[in-house]
Amino acid sequence: MFLRSRPGALKPKLKTVVIEKLSHDGRGIARVEGKTVFVAGALPGETVELKFYHQKSRFDEAVCEKIILSSPDRAVPTCPHFSVCGGCSLQHLSPEKQREYKQTVLLEQFQHFGHVQPEITAPPVLDKAFGYRHRARLSVKYVEKLDMVHVGFREKIHPRWVTDTAVCSILHPMIGEKIQLLRELIAELEIKREIPQVEIAMGDKECALIFRHLKPIQQEDRTRLAAFGKQHGFWILLQASNLDNLEWLLPEKPQFLTYTLPRGVLTYTPVSEKQPVHREEETLVYFFSPAHFTQVNPYVNRQLIQRVLELLAPKPDETILDLFCGLGNFSLPLARYAGKVIGVEGGENMVFQAKYNADQNQIVNAEFYTADLFKPLNNHVWASQPYDKILLDPPRTGAQEIVQTIERWNPKSIVYVSCNPATLARDAGILVHQKGYRLIETGIADMFPHTAHVESVALFQLG
Question: Is 168 a catalytic residue?
Answer without folding.
Answer: no
